[in-house]
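Moderator note: this is an archived Q&A kept for reference. The question asked for a predicted structure of one protein chain; the sequence and the answer are reproduced below.
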Amino acid sequence: MGAWGTALYSDDTTCDVRDEFKDHLEKGLSHSAAERATLESFEDVLSDHQVECLVYFALAETEWKYGCLSDAVKEQALSLLSKGGDIKYWESDNPAEAKARAKALTNLNVRLLSPQPPLKMVKLKSQRPPKKQLDCPIGSLFELPLPDGNIGILKFAGLRIVGASEEAVFRLLPWKGKTLPSLSLLEGISEEAVTICKHHEFALFMSDGRKNPITHLVETNLRLTNSLPIDHSRSVSVNVLSIPQQAQDALDNFP
């Protein structure tokens, strides 16, 4: 848990819950939407009773401070408190501090049962639009020089948001040769894709994140109009410096 004391916000989990809820509000989410988003972030670990206590105690106390404590979160937090909360873990792992922890939980229980302060609004953070890694029509084709002297063809499938950027996602078409084939041939294979790293779609990155990996590709004046939407479950990130060899191997082994 990364606990350094017995107070409510003396561990990593409760601090993360408090900060995430506030961050959602500052991004413009409503109080109820911020609650849902925060709980979804911790959904996979709520089966651990100790973590569940920390999450609901922090969320309930934070919502109370903002005057937006929901009935559902209040009920769950009070239910956990009525059963002792996480005190049994303190009695087992750090009995010398168990009494102080019990007092912190008692204080929390009293606060959650007291009237909330007025609804508190937060100052919204200015949101910059994501930086686009590539700005060209979906379906645009790029040459990928291969180690054997041939070229492969990458089709721009669209953009996916990753942090403060919009990464370009590509598909490797099942063709290689010395010069670009006809557009009619490309249209016939436009919805096919060769697997790279067990995925049909991939974004490119460089170890030096300041440089745009797309500069390693050669843009053509060709574009395929029929393009499938990105399937994020089948997308992976690949280092642009390794993609030529991986693409060549995949094309050589393509059925």
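Archived answer notes: The CA atoms of residues 169 and 218 lie 15 Å apart.
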